[in-house]
Specification:
With about 230 residues, this protein is α+β, with helices and mostly antiparallel strands. Helix content is about 30%, strand content about 25%.
């Protein structure tokens, strides 16, 4: 079983490499990346990226599904799942539709999330993965806790606050060994960004996973500002 899993992972990496080799850019930015004239993604994050291969060429990303909804009935009541189903009433009957939220990151200061919707779970997952790659942002890491003087990039440099809808997230620098003191959804986002220690507070409607994840991303984007937020 372990050998089969390793073999599947190896085959997937080879398939992704072959996909990048056969990639034909359609934008000027894509051509510059394909010709190796742009080697650092931080140079183009302020521009609009329209091709996911641009991000794949410049970063080694890992993906994870965020939790959006709760399963019911035969799926096991009370257990959470990584996709949410909605239905639309028509004359022909109920038309199901699925949504999926994915996070990608290189664990070295870059992270992105994406929401995909489709009539089936697999296309929804592929859409969310593509959007997450196109929404990659830079995160400034540091050691801003007064209890720690290691000067390593294991936390954030100062207090930041993010908001989306009624959900609010406040992130505080933490000393080494603290871990990620935050909810599971935001914990996956911080891990993807390469942050190991954090304190946090959440306000508002935290059961809305999409708004909570966007609020966490909004807070991480504010780590790129030099002015410290006052609470």
């Amino acid at each position: 079983m372990a050998f089969e899993k390793r073999r599947e992972k190896f085959d997937n990496s080879e398939a992704e490499k072959a996909k990048l080799d056969s990639w034909k850019p359609k934008t000027l930015l894509g051509r510059l990346v394909k010709e190796k004239k742009i080697k650092n993604i931080d140079e183009i994050l302020d521009k609009r990226i329209l091709e996911e291969q641009i991000v794949e060429s410049l970063l080694t990303l890992e993906s994870d599904l965020l939790l959006i909804g709760q399963s019911k009935g035969k799926f096991g009541g009370g257990k959470r799942r990584a996709w949410k189903q909605t239905q639309r009433k028509t004359m022909e009957g109920n038309v199901p539709r699925f949504s999926c939220l994915t996070v990608v990151g290189d664990k070295n200061g870059h992270v992105g999330i994406g929401l995909g919707k489709a009539k089936e779970t697999l296309p929804a997952r592929e859409k969310s993965l593509r959007k997450a790659k196109l929404n990659v942002v830079k995160v400034t890491r540091g050691c801003g806790s007064f209890d720690c003087v290691c000067q390593e990039n294991h936390s954030i440099p100062f207090i930041v606050k993010g908001k989306c809808g009624s959900s609010e997230v406040v992130l505080y620098p933490a000393p080494q060994g603290t871990g990620l003191v935050i909810g599971d959804e935001c914990k996956r986002i911080l891990k993807a960004a390469g942050i190991k220690d954090i304190y946090s507070k959440t306000f508002g409607q935290t059961r809305s996973t999409i708004n909570l994840a966007n609020a966490c991303i909004d807070a991480l984007i504010k780590t790129n500002t030099k002015k410290q937020n006052k609470k």
